[in-house]
Design a protein that fits this description.
The protein is mainly alpha-helical. The protein contains 1 helix and 2 strands, in the order E-H-E. Strand 1, helix 1 and strand 2 form a beta-alpha-beta unit.
Length: 51
């Protein structure tokens, strides 16, 4: 049986040093890491490095 699910990318950022695009990119990476590892617990990324 198949049970649908959802994956979320959660990221903690400092608004003084991280712009919205960088935060969204980090959350996207966190979401795909969670999907890749099929964890039952959240994968939380911390502030993305400035580029």
């Amino acid at each position: 049986m198949y049970y649908p699910g959802a994956s979320l990318g959660i990221v903690e950022v400092d608004p003084e040093t991280t712009d919205a695009d960088s935060a969204l990119h980090a959350a996207d990476i966190a979401m795909y890491q969670e999907k890749k590892h099929k964890q039952k617990t959240p994968f939380v990324a911390h502030s993305a490095p400035h580029s």
